[in-house]
Design brief:
This protein has six helices and ten strands; from the N terminus they run αααβαβββαββαββββ. The chain is an alpha/beta fold and 213 residues long. 40% of the residues are buried. Helix content is 19%, strand content 24%. The chain is globular, with a radius of gyration of 16 Å. The strands form two sheets. Strands 3-2-1-4-5-8-7 form a seven-stranded mixed beta sheet, with helices on both faces. The longest helix has 10 residues, at 157-166.
């Protein structure tokens, strides 16, 4: 039986307290390495700016970023299901860490940058979440996150790639990165539910298979 999103939030796979706990802003195990760009560098020239990070884990990378951009007109927001945030988040008025299911977090845009570093692996309606947050981007903003198409079930891969392109999404098959803008549109697929077991992805870690028709 497929699980709805409320059931998924109680899953040990989804509420993974070790996910994204140690990843920093820069360096070998970092947002810059996994995304292929440094968020604060990308935001240069776009200030004042707002950066939203979904499935931020401990928020370590965001806390590091907040310390580097004091007084530079950047607001940083992190959202994670498990509110085990690292120490230091309360030190910066321009940083907000929110404990909430990503799909239920009521935020207002626009954001210049929205990231989701290896977080979509643990969500049910991955495609719906992407469309939900792309709508919060500024006119020149970008949304970037890791998505393994192996975890999208019920749609043939070639058709899925064609639908993504047609509706304004870019997908890097080598890096497993999806990118959208405020012009990116929801895909004409209906979300059916998910399974939280036997769903490994390119990271080798357990994740969630999402089913569509």
């Amino acid at each position: 039986m497929l699980l709805d999103d409320n059931s998924l939030t109680r899953s040990s796979v989804v509420a993974n307290s070790t996910m994204n706990r140690e990843r920093g802003l820069l360096g070998a195990n970092s947002y810059a390495k996994d995304l292929g760009f440094a968020p604060l560098v990308w935001l240069e020239g776009r200030r004042p700016a707002r950066w939203l990070d979904l499935c931020c884990g401990s928020g370590r990378a965001l806390i590091e970023a907040a310390g580097l951009c004091i007084g530079q007109g950047i607001e940083i927001v992190g959202v994670d299901l498990v509110g085990l945030f690292a120490d230091g988040g309360d030190d910066f008025p321009h940083l907000r860490l929110i404990e909430s299911p990503v799909g239920e977090c009521a935020l207002e845009g626009p954001f210049e940058l929205i990231t989701c570093v290896h977080g979509l692996h643990y969500l049910g309606d991955k495609l719906g979440t992407l469309a939900q947050y792309a709508a919060l981007l500024s006119e020149t903003g970008r949304l970037v996150g890791h998505l393994d198409l192996v975890n999208i079930q019920g749609v043939e891969r070639r058709r899925l790639l064609a639908l993504l392109r047609k509706h304004g999404w870019r997908y890097d098959t080598r890096r497993h990165l999806i990118e959208g803008t405020v012009q990116s549109q929801p895909l004409p697929l209906r979300y059916l539910g998910a399974l939280d077991h036997d769903a490994p992805n390119f990271t080798g870690q357990p994740g969630v298979n999402s089913f569509y028709e």
